[in-house]
Specification:
By secondary structure, this protein is mostly beta strands. About 15% of the residues lie in helices and about 55% in strands. The protein has 3 helices and 11 strands, in the order αβαββαββββββββ. The chain has an 8-stranded antiparallel beta barrel with strand order 1-2-3-4-5-6-7-11.
Amino acid sequence: MKKILLSLSIILISVAAFAQQDSILRSKKGVPILPQKGDWAIGADAVPYLNYLGNIFNNTSGNSLKLDQQTLYGRYFIADNAAIRLLILINKGSSRNSLYVQDDAAIFADPLSRAQTTDYIVEKFTQIGFDLGYQKFRGYGRLRGFYGAHFGFGVTRNNNSYNYGNPMSIANSAPTSIDWEDKDPYHLSNRILEWDRGYEYGLNLGLIAGVEYYFMPKVCIGGEITLSASHSWKTQGNSKYEHLNGSVVEEYDIAESPKGRTGTNLYTQRPANFGAKYDGSLYLMFHF
């Protein structure tokens, strides 16, 4: 009798284990399709790639893959149906715009000279942020929906520097230079050297929901929307100018914009607004 009961127990355990293993959705080759507890994932925005492919099929001229501003996705599954996800945005760079002006020193030495020098402006921008979220999954087959919550923080900064080929001096108090738009409103003849908007910070938190489809084993395309509240504030913005004070070239600062709160909002859009608002939230995710 004991042997019979032991045999029945072994059979029942084996059947239960086989049923549990068989409940995992697999491809024709037996590879699990959905991510499981302990899996990691990396991904990126799918919108630039979809736009590029769409323009190819539409025969759009000048089509290019624009990857200048990407949000990176990371995820770790703490259970078969739950994960912690992280979004990271890094958008940092600069641009330079150069223009010719006459070379005052060369013209002074030879009024018939056509010599030129260069004025240029360097525009720098920085945008960094992250968004941490919790996702709970449910669904059938390759299609799964999720819901959860998120919290994000970000910072942005923009500043310009201006450079001139003709220096200001007592011998040349009004050097030839590009008439940039950013002028001292009180002394229009003075030249701008720097323009700094200051730092802008943003916090946001709220609820998330979305859907994913696994078109390959552990590879999915998904979309996410949020209902979020955000709060943003900034530091003091300043500009620097130069002018001739008697026989000395002096630099001075002017406060451009005061520090303080810049906005508080309740909105439905993609998470991690990082001080800027984004449209759409499609991503491609790979699990390992």
